[in-house]
Each structure stands twice: as C-alpha cells, then as structure tokens.
Amino acid sequence: MKRKISAVLVIAMTVLAAAGCGGNKETEEDSSATTLEAISFMGEDTKRDGFAQVAEAYEKAHPGVKINVQHLDYGTFTTTLQTRIGADDAPDLIFGTAILNQELVKSGQIEVLNDYDILKQFTEEQRACMTIEGNTYGVPLDQMVICAFYNKDMFDKYNVKVPETLSEFYKACETFEDAGIVPFIRPYKDAAYIQYDLDTQVYALIDKAGKTDFFTDLESGKAKFTDSPEMREGLELFAKRLSYLSGDDLGTDPAVSSQLFAEGKSPMYINGSWVVGDIVANNPDGNFGIFSVPVSDNPEDNKMYAAVDDAWMVSSKSDHKKEAVDFLEFMTSDEGMQIWSKTAKAIPLKSIETEGLPALLEEVSGYVEKGHTVNVDKYVFFSGEATDKFNKNMQLFVNDPDVEATLKQLDKEFQNN
Length: 417
Hints:
Layout: E1 2-5, H1 18-21, E2 34-40, H2 45-61, E3 65-71, H3 74-86, E4 93-95, H4 102-106, H5 124-127, E5 131-132, E6 135-136, E7 138-140, E8 143-151, H6 152-157, H7 166-178, E9 184-185, H8 192-209, H9 214-220, H10 229-242, H11 254-262, E10 268-272, H12 276-282, E11 288-291, E12 304-308, E13 311-314, H13 321-331, H14 334-344, E14 352-355, H15 359-370, E15 373-375, H16 384-399, H17 403-414
Parallel strand pairs: 2-3, 2-4, 9-10, 12-15
Antiparallel strand pairs: 1-14, 4-13, 5-6, 7-13, 8-10, 8-11, 8-12
Helix pairs in contact: 2-14, 8-10, 11-12, 16-17
C-alpha cells in the first residue's frame, strides 16, 4: 500500500559494528577509504536492518566511505560514549537528541550545524529537540509515541472494552487478572523502559498543569519531589499498575518482550512505537491496536506521549565532519527515508511516499494525526547524570513501590546537587 504521509514515529539504526559488534569491515583493497564511526543505543532488529541497508546504499554511491555502527543498550551507552571521548576516540556520529545530551553540547563535544543546508528541510518545531540557546546540533529523523499496545483478539475473547478512562483501564486489568492472565509484558531488564512506562502518565499530568520547567526545576533543586503533585500522582498511578499480576519483569529485555507480546502471552504492552517493526516481524498476521494510558476518568486528560524519536549528531572532534554530514543528508533524503521506511517499517518525520507499512503502524500514524497527544519536545528532561539517578530509583521502586519513601529518597539525592 502506498500513500502520502507526514509525521510520526519510529526509527533507529544500528548495524552491529566494528569493535566486536560486527559491521562493515575494511579489506586491504579499501584500506584507504574514509571510515565513519557511529554509536547508537537502538536495539530493535528491524531497525538495525533498516540502518544497515541505508548505510549499504550510501557506501555503494560513495565507494570511498565506509560506515561502522557500534550498537549498545541504553544502560551502557552514556558510559561507553564518555569513555571513548575521554580516550580521544569519539565516534563521528552520535545517536540522540541535543536536549537529552546537554552535557555533551555544553562541553563542546557536538558540532553546531547552523550553517549546513541539511537543516533547511526541517521546521523550527521539528528542530526544537536539537536546538539549545539558538544553535542546532543535529538532525531529527522521525517521531514516536509511547502508548499501550493491545491484542485485539484477547480483548474480544474476554469482552474487554478498549479503555478510554482510568476506571475502564483498571477494569481491563482486573478482568485479565481474574482470568489468570498477566495483563502486561514489561521489559524492565533495561531500566530505560521503566522510565518509558512511567512517562506515559507523568507527561500527561505535567502537560495538564502547564509546567514546562518541571524536570529542570527538580534537577536544580528549585522544586522538591515531595512537593510535586504531578510526580506524586504519577508514581501512585504507576504503583497501581505494578500491583497487578506480573511476570519476570526485571528479567525480560525489550527484544524478548516484543516477541512475547506478539505471541499473545499478555494482552497489553506499554512501550514506544519503535517496537512496531519487531512486533509485526514476530507475528505478521497479528491483530493489534493502541490506546493512550489513561490518567483520569476524563478522556480529554488522557493524551498520548509524542516526540521526535531518533536523531543524529556530529562530533565536533571528528576528522570527517564533511562526510558525516553528507551521510546524514543522504539518510534524511527521500531515497534514504524510503529505504529506511520500507525495511524498518517506520514512518519518517518528513513527508515522502511510503509503501508496505503494517496496519499497526498505520493505526499509530492515524492516532498522532488526530493530535490528541502531548508534545514532549517542549519539556527538557533530566540531564544524563540526573537521568541515571532517577532510573536507579525507579528500578528500586519496581521492587518496592513505596511512593513516599521514593519521593523522599529522590529529594535527598537531587537536593544535594
């Protein structure tokens, strides 16, 4: 199926790379080629394949350039990157947004792209997550949502209504639990996915309150966690969800969780739209849908998390800045995005002709186009170190969801910055 489409979701990009991860290796014949080293934390197989094909197409058109990508999980990405930078071995291309990598930007590790033509294809709003104090430090690739995926067949079998309110959501959970079914697949082996799960409700709460400085105020110590009604309510909602029958949450990684959900092991799966490719790959004929995780019994409050998802930056220390930007120009071109979309089953940020999109991805696209979402790019999340502290506490919270104790511990750690 082919259609004109703009906006949403997913991507990622990684082909196992050089240093022990596999990838494009140079031979004696091409030892004079320029090798671009990239680092990424995207883990879905379909997206790795998509990036591999984009890189292959670029290399074919540019025989003097090779692309190597080192793929890491989110938990080790920051430490590995910092180690490489400290050892004067910074990769040429760094995955992520400027907003979420402010320490790198402020320490001068990221190249300013203001004077490069590549930025002209993106709107100011699309560049917002890459722009700090008037300078743009990279390019966005796609938009994503974080939502609840659900198995339509399981919902029909147990006569469960797709939730539009918090009460309906809890009723769905209880119906499955009463039937001896674990309501959710949770990929909590990777701590980042605990944060994503929490984000589905916290951002809706802070958006309703209009607190754009929510995270920066907490990180700086200007605001306290114990005094935040939004964080308190968010954790209370999260604790309620954790109270339902669970599986091996902390032992399940993202790749396995997508497989388990696709196989019908549980009816619901809270995750980002970047997993659509893996869900469909594991069950091409599956009957799946999405809904926004509710925060109240007023449907107007129950907005879905939406943001630019994947992005790339260029290292200011790179010896191959021209080639690095040229590769990003190819990746964000119509040709590059078509290759990516077809292989990774992802919808690029820019408007291009796409074909072969799975029905689930079309449903996500349609939801975002309706606009009942929270644009989280306007909220500056915690910096890298603060994110690590927050995620560590969320891991402890999963084991012992004590809201008051967690809020006090977060204050203790953040107020002493």
